[in-house]
């Protein structure tokens, strides 16, 4: 009975978190798109792949947390059943919200969903971008690590890892674009600030 209550509480935490995370994303998207009078979504395979994988990963994670039978079908990993991992996972969800919120604020009008090669945007290097060149993408990676710790089954782990790889590929594409757009200014920034946090 206690296990069922824990699963229910975890499901609620995951659902409330993802709603808050997505609300921030959509508010920023709508406000910026309306202000600039253009679409801020890039149309490239890296962005589309990441969005699809993100949706699958969220769905598998939340459904696994709600339905214990489904969680069991996806082969739970007993190593992560230690309550300490739950505490770390919840702290990572909070960190995800903090990082993504700061990134959305600091990006101002330069924020785009994927790379839009036909547009010239300002290079942002201050605020949280002084600690990470890709804080918003970093927030996703933090999210997927949290999912692995909180709902640890084989499916969640596989889709989380695939999502992280997809995000990394999107970052590499964006770096090439920013280098071509900003030249030495971006190379100098790249030399001073890590891609993620320390690396």
The SSE order reads: HHHHHHH
Q: State the helicity in percent bands.
A: over 70%
Largest sheet, strands/sense/barrel? none
Rg computed from alpha carbons, rounded to a whole number of angstroms: 18 Å
- Rounded to the nearest angstrom, the distance between the terminal CA atoms is 44 Å
Number of distinct beta strands: 0
What are the defining features of this structure?
mainly alpha, 71% helix, disordered N terminus, single chain, 199 residues
Describe this structure in words.
The protein is mainly α and 199 residues long. It is 71% helix and 0% strand. The protein is built from 7 helices and no strands. The longest helix is centred in the N-terminal third of the chain and has 35 residues, at 2-36. The chain is elongated. The protein starts with a helix and ends in a 7-residue tail after the last helix. The relative contact order is 0.15. Residues 1-6 have low confidence and may be disordered.
Q: Could you give the topology of this structure?
A:
Layout: H1 2-36, H2 45-66, H3 68-73, H4 83-107, H5 135-150, H6 154-182, H7 184-192
Helix pairs in contact: 1-2, 1-4, 2-6, 4-5, 5-6, 6-7
Give the structure's gist in a few sentences.
The protein has 199 residues and is mainly α. The chain has 7 helices and no strands.
